[in-house]
Design a protein that fits this description.
This is Pilus assembly protein PilP. Pfam families: PilP (PF04351). This protein has about 170 residues and is an alpha+beta fold. The protein contains four helices and seven strands. It has a domain at about 85-165: SH3 type barrels (Roll), CATH 2.30.30.830.
Length: about 170
């Protein structure tokens, strides 16, 4: 009898595991797994890309002054900034940071009053330079200063661009 007692206890424990205790869970699993496939789609094919050799030696160096020297010798568009002249004070500032705040007229010559980011006031007349793009003043009126800038285009050639600095609206109302 002592021998059969442990065997009886194990059989009772195993009988408890096979009951209908989780029948609702088993039914839900059976319903939800009916339409499932046991297959995973294959990975897409990897396309091979042919490497391109980058030959930078045949392209002009965007950081060299060779384009500027070429323009001085007459190559390219023929337009080039004059780098031999001394820089003027207003060429040290971005044109966007300069403001026209008024004009002064002496005889027939009109000079514009330009306020710099350093809060100083500067007189500008035709022939002066302003901004960091070699901008030369070509005309001064009571409401604007017209400039002709020399900038480098995407091809590395120098081109002229016209721009204007207008009288600050707050100053016009005074």
């Amino acid at each position: 009898m002592k021998r059969w007692l442990p065997l009886l206890g194990v059989s009772l424990l195993l009988a408890g595991c096979f009951g209908d205790e989780h029948s609702d869970l088993k039914e839900w699993m059976r319903e939800n797994s009916e339409g499932l496939r046991g297959r995973i789609d294959p990975a897409p094919e990897v396309k091979t890309v042919e490497p391109t050799i980058y030959d930078a030696f045949s392209l002009p160096d965007p950081f060299s002054v060779s384009k500027m020297e070429l323009a001085k010798k007459g190559g390219g568009s023929g337009i080039a900034p004059n780098t031999n002249r001394p820089k003027e004070v207003l060429e040290g500032f971005d044109l966007e940071k300069l403001r026209m705040v008024g004009t002064i007229q002496q005889g027939k010559q009109i000079q514009a009053l330009i306020s710099g980011p350093d809060r100083n006031l500067y007189r500008v007349k035709v022939g002066n330079y302003m901004g960091q793009n070699f901008g030369m003043v070509v005309s001064v009126s009571e409401t604007e200063v017209k400039l002709k800038e020399i900038v480098e285009d995407s091809g590395g050639d120098w081109v002229e661009r016209e721009t204007a600095l207008t009288l600050d609206e707050a100053e016009q109302k005074k």
